[in-house]
Design a protein that fits this description.
Elements: E1 8-13, H1 27-46, H2 50-55, E2 58-69, E3 78-89, E4 92-100, E5 106-118, E6 123-124, H3 129-132
Antiparallel strand pairs: 1-3, 2-5, 3-4, 4-5, 5-6
Length: 141
């Protein structure tokens, strides 16, 4: 039986400055929301705030974002973003993200690839098993 991934969840309200002239959220802002959501989850769920991340022996970089735009995100709309690590493959963590409306209907989906980089060598390295394990619920015997 595989472990259950920890699901990060954040709630956001779309701001005026997030909008394009047609009053939809601008394309680039989706990436900002998804990345900021993950950083907030790392802080809230794992205690990895910015001060901690600056002193960690590794760095995490978003290597790739694949965003599917399903429905427009509108002014002053409340959205919920959820995400979890789907799998680890070498230096990459593949994260599934979903942005949903207040009723739970998906507005956008994102696959985010996050690279693990050794701070000393500045090279990608495989996620250490003990670090990868932090993204899964602990199993009690």
């Amino acid at each position: 039986m595989s472990p259950n991934p920890i699901v990060f969840k954040t709630v956001h309200r779309i701001l005026f400055s997030d909008l394009d002239p047609y009053e939809h959220m601008s394309t680039g802002n989706y990436a900002i929301y998804f990345v900021d959501h993950r950083m907030q989850g790392l802080r809230d769920r794992l205690g990895w705030d910015m001060a901690t991340m600056r002193t960690a022996p590794f760095m995490a970089f978003v290597r790739r974002l694949e965003i599917d735009f399903l429905k427009p995100v509108l002014p002053d709309q409340e959205v919920t973003i959820t995400s979890f690590v789907r799998d680890f493959s070498g230096p990459d963590a593949v994260v599934e993200c979903t942005m949903s409306d207040a009723g739970g209907k998906p507005l956008s989906r994102c696959l985010m690839t996050v690279a693990h980089v050794d701070r000393a060598t500045r090279r990608s390295t495989p996620w250490p098993p003990e670090r990868a394990a932090l993204f899964y619920e602990t199993q009690e015997s």
